Fold Tetraspanin.
Amino acid sequence: MRKLIIIWSFLNFCLFSAGILLITLSILLSKPDYLILSLISTKINLKIIGITLGSTYIFSTIFSIISILFSSIENSNLLKILNIWLIIIAFLTLIFGSYIWIFSLNQISTFFEIWLNQSINIQERIQDKFQCCGYFNGTLEGGFKNQIGFCSNSIFASNQIGCQSIITSAKSPGSDFTLENIFTSIYGFEIIIGLLFLITVCLINERQIKVRFKRIDEKRGGGGFV
């Protein structure tokens, strides 16, 4: 039982840490300085997803502590409720992770639409930072609309690479790199939730065994087992 409690406590700490990490990163990375994340956030509100998941994880650890402290060996109803809640947050985690993963499958066309809807200021900042012009290329058809900053000369712009290859790149800070890290991390939290569910089941089962032996011992006169 003691080893189970230690493992259970460690997994709760991991889930609590995941919650803190999600909330912290979702707030820090929502700043406009992160241009690619800003583009992603026009379609997916990563801040809301991070705060929502992080809050549920933190609540889960608080409820789990209450469950273990205020449930007796004879009554494990709170631990059973905890496991039902863990199933719910596992499902919620799967939904958010899959939503981001599905979004990542159509990045090139999706980001072209996002690019066209961006303000002149945002397009200029991206073009200046990554030294590219337009989305596909530096032509009107390629999503080039603003002759400013790095792309102030239309002839020069037409010979530059488009920002699409950088925006959707599989290397940092590209969206493919960013989204893949986000949804794999979210899927990774499922492991913590799943293990916590299983160890809670083991705790409930261990308690039931103790209760069973206690009752058998009482029937035998309370002498205990050899």
